[in-house]
Structure formats: structure tokens, C-alpha cells
Amino acid sequence: MTEKTLSLVLPVYNESTVLPLLFTRLASLQRDIPGLDEIIFVDDGSTDDSFARLLEAADSHSGWRVLRLSRNFGQQVALLAGMQHAQGDAVVLLDSDLQDPPELIGDMVALWHQGWDVVYGVRRSRHGETWAKRVSSKLFYRMLSALSDID
Fold this sequence. Notes:
The chain is of the alpha/beta class. It has helices at about 20-30, 50-60, 75-85, 105-115, 130-145; strands spanning about 5-10, 35-45, 65-70, 90-95. The chain has 2 domains: about 5-120, Spore Coat Polysaccharide Biosynthesis Protein SpsA, Chain A (Alpha-Beta Complex); about 125-150, no CATH class. Helix content is about 40%, strand content about 15%. The protein is globular and about 45 Å long.
């Protein structure tokens, strides 16, 4: 049986200061997770030097690709653009700001290998977010749970 492949898609918007740490953690992740062959960064119209840093990193890492949107279209459009270019059997979506630890991807991939079609994570604490953001997130995940067999 052929090994399943993964594509990791990360939207990037003015994340220049966090990118060096992100690159280190993703390189380690790529070594540790078999099949993580493609990492796609989607620059969502950054005005800092994020795009230049992404290009530099992609030049020195196998399977790293960079897409650049002509302006800031927003996170969802950036994710969609990355998914449209992804070539893996599965796509993992991750924010580039490191609010969610990339190291959890390995556990999620293990569940996928067990046969789950969709695996997602939910933050337990949402410090620093507005009341409206917390409520909308909670409603979204309740609706997702109600519409699926996933708990």
C-alpha cells in the first residue's frame, strides 16, 4: 500500500517576527511525520517582509511552497487558495501565528490513519479574544458536533 501524503497549508499575514520559530518547528515536524511532503505558505498580502522570509525558507526546505495573494483577502480565502494548490491525500490547516502548537498535528494524523475522515482541534482556553469571538467559536463547534459523528 502506498503511503498517504499530507499537505500543510498556512495562511500568513504580517507574521515576520514569528516566522523563524515557525520554520524551525515545521522543519522538525516534517522530519517526524511520515508523508508530510508539502508545506504551503499563503502570503495574504503582507506589508512586512513575511513574503521575502517565506521565499528564503522555501528555497532551503524540500516540499515548501509559497503562494502570494495580490492583496489581503482574509484568512478564509488564503486557506482556500492553499487547499486548491495542495497535492496531498489530506490537507492540514494551521495558523502561522503559533497560537496553536504545530506539534499536535502528529496526534491528529494518527487519528486520520485510524480511518477518521475529518480530524479537528478546539482550543480549550481562548485568552485575549473578544466575547463575540468566543461565543461564535463555541456555536460553530457545537454545530459541527451536532452535524457529525465526531465528539
